[in-house]
Amino acid sequence: MSNYIIRSGLRRAFGDSVNRWLQCSRQAILSYRTKKIASSILAIAMVFTIGGCTNQAPNPSNEPIQQQTDVHNNEQAIMDNYNTLLQKGDVSIPEIINFIDVNLSAVSQLNGSTMIIGLEKVQYDRLPKMQDKFSDEAVQKIVAKGYQNGVDYVNSIQNKQVKDLLLETKNSGYKIETAEGMFFPVIDYSFYKKYHANMTGDIAAFFDIMAVESDKTPIKDAALIISWAEILKRAQAQEQFIKDYSNSAKVEDMRQQLRRYATFAMYGGNNTPLFSYETKQIVPEAKKVYLETKFDETNGSFSKAMLGYLEVLKKNNYRLTNEVQEYRNKVVEEIR
């Protein structure tokens, strides 16, 4: 009642000014209350929103990262186990091969190459002892007799000890070679073809080149058993590897291989020399092949050496002279 009287009195005293003032006051109060309520609603909504997020499922975008982490950890565990296996002195080569066969598909090509190179090293390191097992005369006679039966000669051998030795040789990634009437194991690089897709490009190329070598050895009984053209073809493939994969873990092995073939190309073999022992003249077949072959010195040291060799040979009428001898002695050592 008193408020009504006051408002009435004010209206009479001040007229329309008071009416406008009162109306503005009501609007201001209403606006303030509205903003206050809106702020409260917004705050409550934010609380529910944040609370709701914590109860949602994990963000799918994080799943690939977790999967990558799991794969990496699993791969590292495989490599750790592999290295532990290699360090065991009593581990057999078939055990190593089995580990690779089981786990190779679960690692990268880089780690796969590491595993395969590790296997090759074990084969190389144990090869002398394996060869010693074949040095016994009785073993040689039994193997020689069985060898006459052809490819499946192992099954034709009755002696259990020798048969087990041959099976161990095969299961360890070796093959039997023969030279000068003796039988002995060598690394069978064709064995590695099954791993081709799991190697890096350089390691796959290396084992491909070495498979050609082990499938048909270039020399036996001090005589070349492949053609002069094949010698150059293999040497140029080795040279190309060195050019293409200069940083490969196997580049030094390939350089050694290329020096070997450079010796074949410039010397021949003791029983198949490049120059006639009687006339000192170059073998006609070799001369023809060498002159027809294209050598590009930008490909590497072998091609450069062969171009220089042909120049020296031409100057000396393709005969073995002191100048020719000095040239080949020098450049073979420079093959890189």
UniProtKB/TrEMBL annotation:
This is Uncharacterized protein. It comes from bioreactor metagenome.
